[in-house]
Hints:
By secondary structure, this protein is α/β, with parallel strands linked by helices. The chain contains twelve helices and 18 strands. The chain starts with a helix and ends in a 17-residue tail after the last helix. Pyridoxal 5'-phosphate binds at residues 218, 356. Homodimer.
Amino acid sequence: METTDLLKIASEHGSPIYVYNSEKMISQYKRLQNAFQKVKHLRLHYAVKALSNISVLKLFNSLGSALDTVSIQEVKLGIKAGVPAQKIIYTPNGVSVEELEEAVKLGVQINIDNLIILEQFGTKHPKVPVCIRINPHVMAGGNTNISVGHIDSKFGISIHQMPHILRIVENTGMHINGIHMHTGSDILDIEVFLHAAEILFDAAENFKDLEFLDFGSGFKVPYHENDIETNVEELGEKLSKRFNEFCKSYGRDLTLAFEPGKFLVSEAGFFLAKVNVVKQTTSTVFAHIDSGFNHLIRPMFYGSKHEIENISNPNAKKRFYSVVGYICETDTFANNKMITEINEGDILAFKNAGAYCFSMASNYNSRYRPAEVLWYNGEAHLIRKRETFEDLIHNQIEISLETNVVESV
């Protein structure tokens, strides 16, 4: 996929628009497979929340990927995409027993991270296999909003509450077939990950009928040239060796599972937006685009810094610009960033826009959500239409109201 292809997509389908390169998704999936090729049983669950378009789910299903889901709606999307229910793990947070039961009826693997829910579910359904999400109390992640393994996190059952877990399992007679953890996203130090893995291995010793250990994910991807990233090859070498040693001592070959999302789709994504106007103030040159944080909230929410390239004018002299949106609040994508000279009508390409970008988009300011395109087999395929006014009001219900009524006092 070349720059000319991106410009053609923007011309044919309009802007703003998300474009995903399937070749990058495939290469990242194979890279992770190769990193853990020494493990006898490896299962990769694509994290649906990163990018949930059904065509993307079908792509990963064609690669043999399983799915990681966090809502009953994601479960149904996966099944609709053709993913076998037994290859879907459902890891919600704070949901009711009723939603867990709905997932069980659909035939997926459930993962419970709450003592009370564990007891309630085990009492009612002791024969249903259950995975338990452990909080290892290991801090990892590039932002507090995506660090989920620390002691104050709402996720998982504390490793220090293992006696409570074992009491519930014994009292209910329930079947525990997996142990799970997820420390956070954007993990830089693989030693932190390996430390958390040891905690999971220790927890697993308490259960004699396990089928898999799920190590979550959180691998960091590069956001700019020379940016650091998780060394998955080194992690694969070290964790595979330790996992195989554990399986030998456990007496059975278990499945090693991961739940990559950002790692698989982040670098595959481009967000294309048109420059509406260039505005010079007393201190700044603003490039106003035809979008805002309603379409790409990560810079405002996580402080993420997406590389921005002027693909309409790539060889011009660079100048300093602040790239901003059209939302009626501050929605700054970049402050005083060097970009090749920008003119009205130019197309800016935001890189690393595959993960948690469209999936977090909204209709704030009553703006339409953008279209999505998948670059597959050398061609651009529209996989989501741009919304229209009819989509905006589709589920709204107008009621009859009296007009020109003045209440007398």
